[in-house]
Amino acid sequence: MRLVTTPMTACLCATALLRLQAQGGSQASPKSELAVFAGIGESAQLNATASPLAFHGRGPDVAAEYWRTFRGGRLELSVAADGTARSVMAAETVSSTERLTTGGVHSSVLRQFAHDSSRRILGVGVEAGADVAVTNHRYANPSQSTGDYLAAFATLGPVASWRERIGGAVAHVQLSTPLVALVDRPYSTLKRNDAPTSLRVAGVGSFRGVRGELSYAPAERRRIGIVYAYRFAVADYADVQPLRTASQSLTIGVVRRFGRLAQ
Amino acid sequence: MNAVRIAAGLAVACCASLGVACVEPLAGPKAATDRASLFDDMWQQVDLHYSFFELKHIDWNSIGARYRPLALAATSDTALSNVLGRMLAELKDVHVSLTSSAGGGTFRYISSTDTASAFFSAQLVSERYLPNAQSTAGHHVRYGMPAQTVGYVFIPSFDGTGWANELDEALRALPHATSLVVDVRNNLGGTYSLASALAGRFADRKRTFGYIRRRNGPAHDDFTDYLPETVQPSGPAQFHGPVYVLSNRRNFSSAEDFVLAMRALPNVTVVGERTAGASGGPIVRELANGWTYQLSEWIEYTPRRETFEGLGLAPDSLVQATLADAAHKVDPILERALTIAANRARANMVALSDSHRRANRERGPTRRR
User: Fold this and answer.
1) Left (φ > 0), alpha (ψ -120 to 50) or beta: where does B323 sit?
2) Which of B56, B166, B230, B235 has CA 20 to 30 A from A152's CA?
């Protein structure tokens, strides 16, 4: 349920922000953007708590992003939420299947190393994120047993961004990697009378990952425009029962720009 | 125009990456399916999750060392499944099984209670005690009136989900029952939540009926704290009259959870034999070749925090059915329950008339005009 509501909550928050911005839009500076994306994605995961097999599949992908500059463009804040729900299959000839539902919210604050009117803007900062994934695994035994497996991570780490203006368009690349994670991953299947959450801290020795986004907005000078985004994420949690996930998505979004537009 | 060209180029590149550059290899290498890998994976998963190593004094390392060479020497999938099945049987746990596609079907440990007859016959109950017995619409519950005010419901299995309302249907069809016999003999178990929901048809309030501790770490003694198991009122109405639950040695797993939950209710008396003592909550695992296996992952306890794995749950009134009973077409367990119900009804009647007499005496002689 949490997973389904995460992107929805993000959209609602974004709508509220949009209204606030609309009210104060005449003040010109600062700049902000709100974008909503939909597209297709691909996920692969090996969740050893459920199975020794890796599962893989494609399905719909949704995301929302809010971006804003502060202090004359020296600082930028972005909040992104995404969610997926897809059926994944094993590559091997086994008939067990998984239903993978994921959701996440990531927020980053970056210091920009060029003025926002420059052609090229580099930024470095810190990103905090929360990701939740529920795997519903259907075993190929005679009674078609199922088990639900949860993995939730709150992460903190550095982020870097590069924004390049090409004519009236803008391309943007952002990369982040967690340095520390707070992990909630039950030892086995979720059961009705489970113990309360037990959180563990994982450093780079046991939790490694990278997230990236490549986006392209062809008409930066319009209030409402189109933006294409390609995202990927890879994570490896070296637990007693390891968890490895990889995903990529290609989405197209509608962006609404507020404040002063690019010259 | 230039920007459009770049956008199109980017879109094509991204589509290509999604179509061609599959993320699948990033999730790890393909799982190995050679004999050693399959054996090691199963041995390790059991090592990580099985709950009764300490309680049953099982040396899993030495069992693994004994069976690994046999697994590696297996000349066919059937032979391998045989070795793995035999290794799992060393756990002496009816919740542990292996289902292979190698033609061997499902390997399961056969305990002495599996093979011993409980001398219970549902047909005998129907013919001798319930000539007008009926079944609910979904055929999960059979019911009737073996005595004037005593109702009877028979629940042969807790398999499946979503049919708890059939017990409501049976209870509605027994409006004259002031007490009830709930027969779960030879019920081998099924769905835990269903058993709990059915017990809720007799609950007056939320009560803790037992505890479980789940494996939560790699060491054999890594367990959660005691997690309470509760029964609470469920369904449109609850039966609060005296209830007699009939149990026998062929009650396993969720059927034992049902007996355990019913024992926690003040209006319930358990009559019959000890249950089988198969209390480990099972989980399912799979091997890289698609075979699946099941193992116990928790230890269940009574409200006094005593485990009953391998021991069973003792009834309040012990009655052992014998071959001679079966030969004489007598069901001594049901008869004991009916006798207790009749005695209790008689005692209640006496107590009621005594209290009326006392009340009349306290009121003094009635004045006549």
Assistant:
1) alpha
2) B230
Q: Has residue A28 got a pLDDT over 80? A: no
Average pLDDT over residues B174-195: 95
List residues bridging with B222 in a β-sheet: none
Angstrom distance (rounded) from CA B309 to CA B313: 9
- The least confident of A124-138, A157-171, B350-364 is B350-364
Please tell me whether residue A29 adopts helix, strand or coil conformation.
coil
Q: Which of residues 21-80 of A touch B (CB under 8 A)?
A: 40-46, 51-56
Report the C-alpha gap between A261 and A240 in whole angstroms.
51
Measured CA to CA in angstroms, residue B148 lies from B175, B179, B332 at distances of 11, 10, 19
What the block records as the tokens of A236 is 């490896």
Strand partners, A45: A55, A245
Contact A166 B283 (CB under 8 A): no
Interface TM-score (ipTM) > 0.95: no
| Mean pLDDT of the region A232-243 | 94
In what side-by-side order are the strands of the sheet with B97-99? B106-108, B97-99, B292-296, B282-286
* Strand-pair partners of B180: B151, B243
| Gap between the Cα atoms of A187 and A239, Å rounded | 10
Average pLDDT, chain A: 85
pLDDT beyond 60 at B1: no
Q: Which residue of A has its CA nearest to B40?
A: A52
For residues A159-173, average pLDDT = 92
The model's pTM is 0.84
How many angstroms away from the CA of B105 is the closest CA of chain A?
A: 10
Q: Cα(first)–Cα(last) distance of chain B, in Å?
A: 117
CB B104 within 8 A of CB B74: no
CB contact under 8 A, B216 and A44: no
Cβ neighbours, 10 Å, residue B266: 7
**Phi then psi for B133, rounded to 5 degrees?**
-65, 145
- What does the pLDDT look like over A95-143, one tens digit per residue? 899 999 999 999 999 998 876 567 888 999 999 999 999 999 999 888 8
Q: Which residues contact B292 (CB under 8 A, 6 or more apart)?
A: A96, A139, A140, A141, A145, B98, B99, B284, B285, B286
In A, residues 225-244, which contact B (CB 8 Å cutoff)? 228, 230, 232, 234, 240-242, 244
Which of A52, A93, A188 lies nearest to residue B31, judging by beta carbons? Answer: A52
A139–B286 C-beta distance less than 8 A:
yes
